[in-house]
Amino acid sequence: MDFILETGETGKAFGSVTAKDIEDKLKAEADITIDRHRIRIERPIKETGEMEVPIQVHGDVIATLKLEIKAHTPAPKESEPETKDGRPKTRKRTTKTGS
Length: 99
Prior knowledge:
With about 100 residues, the chain is of the alpha+beta class. Helix content is about 10%, strand content about 25%.
């Protein structure tokens, strides 16, 4: 099961994957209903990579769900147009004339 984690330019995660996120994705993609309290993660996942998450299905029965956490870095914003000398181009203000 894949999750996309929003990251900044430096690779630092802005969010995390929680037991609730896993519960919701299992329901949406596989129509499997598991209480989030049965998903055994110590803390929200903030690292990218592959990992296995134990799920207590019933009593002593524990299943393992393989997750892949991928990073998504938004595209950098376009910079302002520059003049020939390298300075940012300024925009001319227009004024409205009322009648």
